[in-house]
Amino acid sequence: MQGDERQIRLYQLEQAVKQLVLVEGHLTDARTAGSPLCCHCISKHAFALQALAEESAGILPELAPTFRDLGRWAQEVQGEGDRCQLADTDLTRLTERARAFRKDLMAALDREGEAPAARAVPHLAGSPAAAHLGGSP
Question: What per-residue confidence (pLDDT) applies to 127?
Fold first, then answer.
């Protein structure tokens, strides 16, 4: 695998993990900290996850089933966020699924060859990854 392709794969995985961390945090806060459910934020992250899932399924074909599941889950989250009326059981179920996706994708990052704690997001401006993704990150 060429370096550019590897950077694109890492970028896609990192972006998905970041969005999952954010949506997981919003769901957890609403469930455990008594924070108001930020429906707009959850919807925004769900849209981003849907886009990343669609794009990443082609870039990481070995993870296509995971990304298809992630896309379906993100659509469900989007719908729930739009309604903005989630019971604690719904929040728990969605949070647990976000956590499972995050862990799966973090394991995929490890398999790509870099430990999450030691990795920095590469600056992709001007690279083939940026051109593919439509600009700089």
Answer: 37
